Amino acid sequence: MKVAILISCGLAFCTWAKAQTSSPSGKVPQQAAARTNADIVPLPSIKFLTPGQAKGKKLFVQRCSVCHLPALPSYTAYGPLLDKNLVEEHGEEAERMQILQGSARMPGFQYTLSPAETDQIVDYLKSLELPKKD
What we know:
The chain is an all-alpha fold. The chain has a domain at 41-127: Cytochrome c-like domain (Cytochrome Bc1 Complex, Chain D, domain 2, Orthogonal Bundle), CATH 1.10.760. 54% of the residues lie in helices and 0% in strands. The protein has six helices and no strands.
């Protein structure tokens, strides 16, 4: 008797959980359906990066990507897109200072990143080439 009650409670819970996690019509949300493979930004694999660039990629993903990568599912990039063209345009030292000191819209990381970590991020950015949007 107790086993039958436990089984029926478990089935009721599973049914309730399924109803909570599925969309009401069973269709994919329109926002998700509108995304295409062109919206995905391919980051270089660490197989093709130097050890310093691989560490820079990890730091970039942890600290910078939330604002500086385009085409995330729920929003667009908040800050400018970062890649090797930006580093070439502004220069490595200017990018280091921007990372450390920040700006009105960007926090500075002088207290949380070491100079070596800042160099690794800049080194990684030099390897990053984002596809151009039409």
